[in-house]
Amino acid sequence: VEAVHLIADGKAPRIPQPKEGATYEGIQKKENAEISWDQPAEALHNWIRGHDKVPGAWATIDGQAVTFYGSSLLDSSVPAGQELTIKGASKPGLVTKNGLVVFGNDGKMVLVRNLQFEDGRMIPASKYFSSDETTAVELTEEEKKMAEDIR
């Protein structure tokens, strides 16, 4: 009650807030979101999810920064997949049908569902080794005639 009266009377003490630590802006920088691989799987998961969507937790794969999105802890046996070398990771990741499996220093696993490349392309992590080639559609003679009739 006393504090309310001091404010109402304009006599409440004013203590300026220090500028140091007054913002969370420094946390949101991309360079601060690089994944440190020397930690348990739960910490990796928390780091990736904590930076999902902005600024995005990232690691270097094949010389480029790749951002990881949509992680979950994986509590099963090691799935079959194609190995993917990740800079700084003690064990290669595995590209599986469900996504990219990465390992914490405790041997436990984290599943990452989506990856984004430096050029902005985002892909399901399970498609990392899939080629970007498109196949041409070949029409039969009957289909070619139908296409001509439609034109």
Automatic annotation (TrEMBL):
Species in which this protein is naturally found: Climacteris rufus
Gene Ontology molecular function, alphabetical: catalytic activity
Protein name per Swiss-Prot or TrEMBL: AL1L2 dehydrogenase
Coiled coil: none
Lineage: Eukaryota, Metazoa, Chordata, Craniata, Vertebrata
Residues covered by the Formyl transferase C-terminal domain: 29-131
InterPro entries attached to this UniProt entry: Formyl_trans_C, Formyl_trans_C_sf, Formyl_transferase-like_C_sf
Underlying gene: Aldh1l2_0
